[in-house]
Amino acid sequence: MSSHIQLTDQGKLKHFLTIEGLNRELLTEILDTAESFAGMSEHQVKKVPLLRGKTIVNLFFENSTRTRATFELAATRLSADVMNMNIATSSTAKGESLLDTIHNLESMHVDMFVVRHALSGAAHFIAQHVAPHISVINAGDGQHAHPTQAMLDMFTIRQHKKRFEGLKVAIVGDILHSRVARSQIVALNALGVDEVRVIAPKTLLPAHVKTMGVIPLHDMDEGLSDADVVIMLRLQKERMNSAFLPSESEFFRCFGLTEAKLKRAKSDAIVMHPGPINRGVEIASSVADGPQSVILQQVSNGVAVRMAIMTMTMRSLGGMA
Amino acid sequence: MSSHIQLTDQGKLKHFLTIEGLNRELLTEILDTAESFAGMSEHQVKKVPLLRGKTIVNLFFENSTRTRATFELAATRLSADVMNMNIATSSTAKGESLLDTIHNLESMHVDMFVVRHALSGAAHFIAQHVAPHISVINAGDGQHAHPTQAMLDMFTIRQHKKRFEGLKVAIVGDILHSRVARSQIVALNALGVDEVRVIAPKTLLPAHVKTMGVIPLHDMDEGLSDADVVIMLRLQKERMNSAFLPSESEFFRCFGLTEAKLKRAKSDAIVMHPGPINRGVEIASSVADGPQSVILQQVSNGVAVRMAIMTMTMRSLGGMA
Amino acid sequence: MSSHIQLTDQGKLKHFLTIEGLNRELLTEILDTAESFAGMSEHQVKKVPLLRGKTIVNLFFENSTRTRATFELAATRLSADVMNMNIATSSTAKGESLLDTIHNLESMHVDMFVVRHALSGAAHFIAQHVAPHISVINAGDGQHAHPTQAMLDMFTIRQHKKRFEGLKVAIVGDILHSRVARSQIVALNALGVDEVRVIAPKTLLPAHVKTMGVIPLHDMDEGLSDADVVIMLRLQKERMNSAFLPSESEFFRCFGLTEAKLKRAKSDAIVMHPGPINRGVEIASSVADGPQSVILQQVSNGVAVRMAIMTMTMRSLGGMA
User: Fold this and answer.
1) Full pLDDT tens readout for chain B, 321 residues
2) Measured between CB atoms, does B302 come within 8 Å of chain A?
């Protein structure tokens, strides 16, 4: 899937579909813009009028209360009008095609689609077909990408480590099925970290994983050694079957993050997780709630990062005064 | 059902339940008011404060994402507060009667009910029982009426044909079960078109169809001949059974709109459909997406027309400054 | 469950979880504040900017369209942003714990949780664990409490009877399973009514009912005699089984409120019910719709009382300018 579609001729962000093809400068602009929104959450009135009168549609073909909530809050705090559409239970039941649904909504003069879909490439496909004044934000498409999640992770890393140069980042778990991991790996490399390691059993690594710019490892002790950042992935139980891994407890023994294993990382390493966490499956409660965990800060940063991306795409489409 | 209930003593629109009983002057006022809102969708800030502080309840006893969305957008762009209530899954499950639900909501000082219900006459029944300061808008009741859909269709026809006099309009498909067709026929006659033809197999026409002021025909070639406007109806598969028609492909062969059949109409005829469309059942994709199709403009106009009706009813109830 | 958690060190309302532990002065402050909002529903613009920029989350683990609607309207009329989360069908399905859900939402910098839960103590538990700037409002927890309902009932009683001193109040029906009754009894005693009687078959009274400060009675004639206020409870059919009562019609014969039985009460007695009512089960239609019924006024007052509680908790947390 080409990533050029998400940029204007001037190289500005028009859609936000994937981290691929975005250069370090643009990713840094997103992080800087998010920084200006991050402080706002402490204000008495958590609202700015930047997107007043804009209509943002949360188009969720796959249920996700938490992700929908952060996008809804981000839009509301920019003073946009938000319309939630849960399409799983909706007019597709009447046999309407995806494109007909999109064209109908765009005829109502909406300004942005936030799209969550179980199929890889769905947001990309929609962006190819929407009217030129509409922006599409990918809120997770199949096993392909979850770029706003990756950017909030980058924001959180920069918040704690100040810079990306020289960092060793370990991503642990089901890399094979994770759209989050895929987006993180591209972002980390674009932002210039020293090393991205992926740690997983062979059955949970993609076939040509090395071409992604990572070091694949199968042992936690080796993988976490001297790491600055440890990112645990959610074990997508619903996507797994017995062919991939023996049991939850066996997985936890080998790849779950415990206080003992975390000692292999640098003493000031931060522990991240995209949530929702499976306590005792991929991460011990004592680590998730421990001093090195920044899991809840990731959630906070998610609102600011999404406000930044919404504002940047609307601005580049000329949709702001 | 008496239509007088929807007018004030001064003949102003108080509820909007059916086209029946509304004269040409009032229908034209709706179209003119909608025209003032139609341009607004292009503005940077698509909002006017006309209904600020009003509470509009989308009371949907029958699921319809698309219709709910246009009403929600119309209300939001008038700065009203919208509350969506999907009653199918709600307190009626606790055995409360429809009237008790209505009286409870009106006790919360809401200003407008937008009602969708599977039973003919539901909106009318509610209008008879609400407090005098509340307006009821019919968003589709059983097989009875869908008057806002009919008015957006009239708006679209006037947009393209400038006037109603002299127009030949063909409505094709399942007239028998269609609340849309019923409302369109009344509106077209009130606005003074030359001829309304309905084209359908006999099993899909009401018994006394001629009393509705239409010419019933069973052949597409004859029916489309010299038509200025062709309105295709959705084949409500869920309402059909084998007694009414042989098969989808047989229906398409006889009554589906193809480019070849469309050639019988005037060369500048417009093609309309209330959506969602069944491609290849009642309409060929090449026609739905072709140069004569105004299907997506109907959707756009739907927001403006609903804004007009909401504003007019609130104004006549004295609910606006 | 300790009630001190809901007060600040200065004795101001921080959370609203239960009536227990709140003194007469504070309850009166709620009623007085609600009074200032009650008139607002008549205004052209039913909105004040008191909670502008605040985010209020309706966290409903148990479905309740009606209660959710009154809280949504109350928040909207205070200009807060409302986010509805129906958790029954949501991320708890992904196995996330209640506390993880709460901590995630609070990381998004929300200001208030309105909580409905089938388990007694749920709102209390959440209040014990939220960040100090967040307020928790109990919108009904299991069979424990429904304090906003009790306060709107008190508001309605004061509206009609002016004072609580000297009043005889009869509560009729399934006291055993009713969180509403539990909260009402505490409130009525705190506000200084003369007598609270509970009228029910023995199987529907709690074991140590006398310790609650009520007079238990099993006969309607005796119970309603000279009452100033008659509160009928909803018969929670879904919670009942045959062990508790013989049949609906038998229940109505013994404990249903009819015009004849109501004659035992004072001639100016008011009849209340938390809704939704089961006509012909616990109350005759002629009484529910009769001149002594204030059931719909209770609903109206519910919006004003919830506005008052939301405003008071936000103010005591320093969240208002």
Assistant:
1) 556 899 999 999 999 999 999 999 999 999 999 999 998 877 777 899 999 999 999 999 988 888 999 999 999 999 999 999 987 655 444 557 889 999 999 999 999 999 999 899 999 999 999 999 999 999 999 889 999 999 999 999 999 999 999 999 999 999 999 999 999 999 999 999 999 999 999 989 998 888 999 999 999 999 999 999 999 999 877 656 556 666 888 889 999 999 999 999 999 999 999 999 999 999 999 999 999 999 999 999 999 999 999 999 999 988 675
2) yes
Instruction: Output the CA–CA distances (angstroms, integers) from residue B36 to B39, B80, B308, C270, in the order listed.
Output: 7, 18, 8, 50
- Is C146 designated active site? yes
Pull the structure tokens for residue A67. 């992700």
The superfamily in CATH containing domain A147-295 is Aspartate/ornithine carbamoyltransferase (3.40.50.1370)
Residues of B in contact with A75 (CB under 8 A): none
Strand partners for A195: A168
Residue C59 to residue C180: CA distance in whole angstroms: 19
Fold of C4-145+300-316: Rossmann fold (3.40.50)
Q: Which among B45, B65, B297 has the least Cβ separation from residue A52?
A: B45
Tokens, residue C146: 């429904």
Tell whether A96 lies on the interface with B, counting CB pairs under 8 A: yes
Say whether C1 sits in a helix, a strand or coil.
coil
Other C-beta atoms closer than 10 Å to the C-beta of A132 total: 7
| Phi/psi of residue B272, nearest 5 degrees | -125, 160
Q: Which fold has domain B4-144+300-316?
A: Rossmann fold (3.40.50)
- Tokens, residue B9: 């003593």
Residue B91 and residue C45: Cβ atoms within 8 Å?
Answer: no
**Contact criterion met (CB below 8 Å) for C305 and C157:** no
Q: Is C238 exposed, middle or buried (0-12, 13-18, 19+ CB in 10 A)?
A: exposed
The pTM score is 0.93
What's the CA gap between B196 and B94, in Å, rounded? 46
